Amino acid sequence: MTCTDFLSQLTDYFDGQISPELLEEVRAHTATCPHCEVVLDTTSKTISVYRDNELYELSNEFRERLHTAIMTKCRPCK
Amino acid sequence: MPAIQSPGTEEIHPDVALVARAKEGDTAAFEQLVRQYERQIFRVAQHITQNREDAEDITQDAFLKAYEKLDQFQGNSKFSTWLVRIAVNESLMRLRKRKTSKTVSMDEDVQTEEGSIPRDFAEWRPNPEQNYGQAELADILRKTIQGLPPGFRTVFTLRDIENLSTEETAEALGLSVPAVKSRLLRARLQLRERLSRHFRQKKEGLPA
Fold first, then answer.
1. Which CATH class, in words, describes the domain spanning B102-203?
2. pTM, whole model, 2 decimals?
3. Closest approach of chain B CAs to the CA of A63, in angstroms?
4. Cβ of B107: how many Cβ atoms within 10 Å?
5. Nearest to A62 among B43, B56, B141 (CB)
């Protein structure tokens, strides 16, 4: 497997949609290619750091405003 | 995490009953759906528009529009995916109106090859969470995703932050599955490259 082949398998790898044969090839490649090993590790960390940190919280003030709007506007619009 | 199902039974999503009641005019059922998805819809809108006021307006508009169009929801997809699609369309429309970004369609900004080939091969040690306080880390993450073209950050938001499946992401964006996969790869690689400026291991003994 070349580095380009490795990159082309990266999405399926992270999505768990890679075949067992290709998974073996990816593992064999990263075991011998330090650059791709870093890419795999840091891309994985990129995904998890965004998944694990909530960046935008709804304010209580807006939540109240939203529910008032829904409850008042939804009756007439039906 | 797929639910374990006994053979021959098909799991019915709890939203189906709520949507049916809302279609009959039960606003309490609809409000329950709003409670379930308000945070997600707000996050999606905020990630795409990068503006809190816009994201709040879009969240409200998306739910009101969903209520108006409930009869058009056929239940072929999940209610949440249908809702996300409405919010994405409203968000992209808002970006176009604002015109601060030259590229707001899902197609225009993918021509560039930027970031599709990794260049930074430094390790991230220690892990970002160990190296930064929560507020500082959140600030880095917000600023970094902000720099991504809208089409890329939208795909990344739906797939990796909101955890929609590739198929659901494709449906919400009106794209093919291969198109989502290719954008997702580039979005992930570009973000990785940009984050690496902050998270790369500092060389020992060198001034910062």
1. mainly alpha
2. 0.89
3. 8
4. 10
5. B56
